[in-house]
Amino acid sequence: MTKKIVLMGNPNVGKSVVFSRLTGAKVISSNYPGTTVDFSKGRMILDGETVEIIDAPGTYSLEPDNKAEKVAFKMFEDADVVISVIDSTNLERNLYLTLQMLESDKPVIIALNLWDEAKHLGITIDEKKLERILGVPVVPTVALTGEGIKTLVSRIKSAKSPKKIKPTSEEGRWVEIGGIAKKVEKFEHRHHTLRDRVNDLTIKPLTGIPIAFGIIFVCFWVVIFIGEKLSFLITEIFEIGYKPLLLDFGEFIGDGHLYHILISQDYGEVAFEESLGILSTGLYLPLAIVLPFIIAFYFMLSILEDTGYLPRLATLVDNVFHKLGMHGYGIIPTFLGLGCNVPGALATRSLETRKQRFIAITLLAIAIPCMAQMAMIFGILGPYGLYYIGLVFLTLIVLYVTIGFILNKFIKGASPEIFLEIPPYRMPSFRTTVKKTWMRVKWFLREAIPFMIIGVAVINILYTVGLLQELARFVQPLMEGVFGLPGEASTAMITGFFRKDLAVGMLLSLDVNAYQLVIAATMLTVYFPCVAAFIVMIKELGVKDMLKSAAIMVSTAVVVGAVLKIVLLGV
Amino acid sequence: MSKKGIPLVHLQRGKTGRITYIHGGRHGGPHFGHHGHHGFHRKLNVLGIREGQIVRVDSKQPFMGPITISIGNCQMTLGRGMAHKIIVEEL
């Protein structure tokens, strides 16, 4: 059995930075990062022996009161050695968890992390004295620069369980902690720093809200910029490196059903965006169109997280989100959903009640297009101008707010208030950001890309056997009569159940004007989540609630389509 | 501990106070999601919201939005309902 070393600590103490310092390149993340229960696992060599390093979810105590803390507690119980990571700038409250761990019989070693920040704030901690009082090794660290990490590693073997402090009550523990802090901690007066100024500006509504708009705008601009560049590059690889091979392979298998399914509906022609072959569109769409934007999106998201901006954003938007039945943290699933609805739906777990989760998931499915879909919407409406893209997003925002407001009025249940910690702003570590982005992209490759390829395959097969056309004929009258779209748009609508991006792409081949494209693109976003997201949503909400939610989606789509037809087409 | 003072929510922005009492923490009061009362009270404690601690109001979001406070080096955002239950003595 490999020895398990578990990193425990409060949220926002730089635990994951310590983790990435300790572990090598091979890091596995076992649950989706961004959900409440995520953790990473890695390996390191310790005295010639390979040991496992586990980064437990942040927790405030060993008495778990939510899923994440339960996971952390389990990991603590399974640990061979525990590294307690403490935020030196907040010694007292961090000691609560540490003290609880010292009451058990697990060997513990303490990392006094953010040591430089504490110094900066005029806080000095006598680590030798703390070591004597607690009876376990105490090592000051600055994980960001790597300072102290070597010492930490070399002292892991001296981790012990001294049981110097006997189990006490919660009350007693605080008294104990107060005593310890008094003995080891000294404060000096400090000046108002630039960071305090920035913090003030970003959290006060008058300045904070414009800044928030600015930050979100810049983020999306960067995502689109990086995404387009990457997408262009990968497309080149497909066109120059892959296409000739595919055409050769096509000649080899010859015309027939196999050719239609694997390569293209038209023999001898390969257009990566619409050929529908598993080896053509099936690979091209996820890898060249979706993945670039996903990489760019997760990179920016990691930066937003690691700087500590998200809790401030949650504070600023809490007001609006509370009126929609959630609280400020509702912005997290929404944000994640813009990458891919699947992690977005998983992140709704960080909301406390059923009501909040129901509203969050329903709004996510209705009004939040994923990166794949957005890329396609930009692709088809871009040539007509920003105005048309704006119409789609304006409609979605109006829907998000109106439906949230209505659901909040009619769904029973409590929507508790916001309560979150605001960590100080920190320079994100490039290492950690890249690692985090890579872990999320890897997750996406593993969990979402297969769905996309299968989606294309299903559509292709339905098309080849003629079932897709049959189904489409069925909804055709609805398209023409109610939504003012050509009957063939129904093929795209059916396709949308499997792949939204592909469906949006299908609209291109229709003989429609820009307004009709706006209607179709909006309806494709609203009417249903893609299969992958739908399955996750069932898991999160249960069948009964998901059926209710789906009914809301479909009826919203019908109303929106009909209203847009009247407003935009004037008929 | 004395119960005198005003609810934290009435403390003006930029002002500091000492926490004298926390309503409904351990033995009931309105629910706080699935945390249960005990978990909620512990989280308050761990973030430094304990009797005797000094608290400063950093910002208040408009239209009954949440308020942001700091205690020691710890900053946090909480809803006004919760801020009603925390009694402080202005300093």
- CATH domain class of chain B: Mainly Beta
> What kind of assembly state do the chains in view correspond to?
heterodimer
Report how far the terminal alpha carbons of chain B are from each other. 16 Å
User: What portion of residues of chain A belong to β-strands?
Assistant: 5-15%
CATH architecture of chain B: Roll
Mean pLDDT of chain B: 81
- Structure class of chain A: alpha/beta
CATH topology call of chain B:
SH3 type barrels
The number of distinct helices of chain B, counting runs of at least 4 residues, comes to 2
Q: Extract low-pLDDT stretches of chain A.
A: 32-36
Could you say how many structural domains of chain B there are in total?
1
N/C terminus separation of chain A? 72 Å
Largest sheet of chain B: 6 strands, antiparallel
One letter per element, helices H and strands E, the order of chain B comes to EEHEEEHE
Helix content of chain A: 55-70%
Rg for CA atoms of chain A: 27 Å
The largest interface is: A-B, 43 and 36 residues
Q: Number of DSSP strands of chain A? A: 10
- Strands in their spatial order, largest beta sheet of chain B: 1-6-2-3-4-5
Rounded average pLDDT of chain A: 89
Categorize the overall geometry of chain B.
Answer: globular
Would you write up a description of this structure?
The complex is a heterodimer of chains A (571) and B (91). Chain A is an alpha/beta fold. Chain A has two domains: 3-187, 3-Layer(aba) Sandwich (Rossmann fold); 206-418 and 429-465, no CATH class. Helices cover 63% and strands 9% of the residues of chain A. Chain A contains 25 helices and ten strands. In chain A, the strands form two sheets. Chain A has a seven-stranded mixed sheet, with helices on both faces. A two-stranded antiparallel sheet of chain A has the order 7-9. In chain A, strand 3 (40-46) and strand 4 (49-55) form a beta hairpin. In chain A, helix 15 (354-367) runs antiparallel to helix 24, helix 16 packs antiparallel against helix 23 (514-526) and helix 24 crosses helix 25 (543-569). Chain A is elongated and about 80 Å long. Residues 32-36 of chain A have low confidence and may be disordered. Chain B is an alpha+beta fold and 91 residues long. Chain B has a single domain, classed as SH3 type barrels (Roll), CATH 2.30.30. Helix content of chain B is 19%, strand content 34%. Chain B is built from two helices and six strands; from the N terminus they run E-E-H-E-E-E-H-E. Chain B has helices at 36-46, 80-85; strands spanning 6-7, 16-22, 54-60, 67-71, 74-78, 86-90. The longest helix of chain B is centred in the middle third of the chain and has 11 residues, at 36-46. The two termini of chain B are 16 Å apart. Strand 10 (419-422) of chain A pairs antiparallel with strand 5 of chain B.
